[in-house]
TrEMBL record:
Keywords: Membrane, Transmembrane, Transmembrane helix
Upper lineage: Eukaryota, Metazoa, Ecdysozoa, Arthropoda, Hexapoda
Transmembrane segments: 62-85, 97-121, 133-152, 172-192
Protein name per its UniProtKB record: Acyltransferase 3 domain-containing protein
Superkingdom assignment: Eukaryota
């Protein structure tokens, strides 16, 4: 992989977050993820109907091979953007098709994988998804979602000198942001998220008025 040299200054990064058209039109606006929302809801209804109808997973064994192929296809989706890195750039219709289809295809892959795990269609991916360790990051996921962008911007603006960008530096940058985000999310969950969740359970799941009557 070729090594590029970029001058990452705080002014450049701040202007990029504020003025970059791609970031604004693709990542900031809610309707750009509408296809993923619809597919996610549809997959949820599908899993509910399959469980409600008590569909036997043994009758769907033929679809296991499709499920096993979803992770390789998802990896292809990850790295398919490399076609836009080198010149000459692909035609405009390729850009349009790629931008319009990548998110729905990836959402369909992830949704299908989740549904297959819910109905216990296969055991390879399901054993990984149902690993008890995931309970910890799942508790922190919303806090991390709220906080991670702050650490991305904070770390980016500290890069005030010219640096060599390589796969190793990218991995280092990502891990720095992830570690700081998860640490902050842990503190946020302990001090804000968990106490508020306990209060919600107390007020909405406990019949306070009945308890007062019993006391009287």
């Amino acid at each position: 992989m070729s090594i590029d040299i970029h001058d990452q200054t705080s002014r450049f990064v701040l202007s990029w977050f504020k003025n970059d058209a791609t970031l604004h039109h693709v990542y900031k606006r809610g309707h750009t993820n509408l296809a993923s929302y619809i597919i996610g809801m549809a997959m949820g209804y599908l899993a509910y109907d399959l469980q409600k109808d008590k569909v036997d997973p043994k009758n769907l064994r033929m679809y296991r091979y499709m499920v096993w192929g979803m992770v390789p296809v998802a990896l292809i989706c990850f790295y398919s953007g490399i076609i836009f890195y080198d010149s000459p750039s692909p035609p405009m219709y390729v850009h349009l098709l790629y931008a319009g289809l990548l998110k729905p295809v990836f959402a369909l892959l992830i949704g299908s994988l989740v549904v297959s795990s819910v109905i216990r269609l296969e055991d390879l991916y399901r054993s990984i998804i149902e690993w008890r360790f995931w309970r910890i990051p799942s508790q922190l996921s919303y806090s991390a979602y709220l906080l991670h962008f702050f650490f991305v911007r904070k770390y980016a603006v500290t890069l005030t000198s010219t640096r060599v960008v390589s796969p190793w530096t990218v991995m280092y940058d990502v891990h720095i942001v992830v570690v700081h985000t998860m640490l902050a999310a842990t503190v946020f969950w302990l001090l804000v998220d968990a106490p508020l969740a306990n209060l919600r359970q107390y007020f909405f799941k406990t019949n306070i008025f009945e308890e007062k009557k019993k006391v009287k």
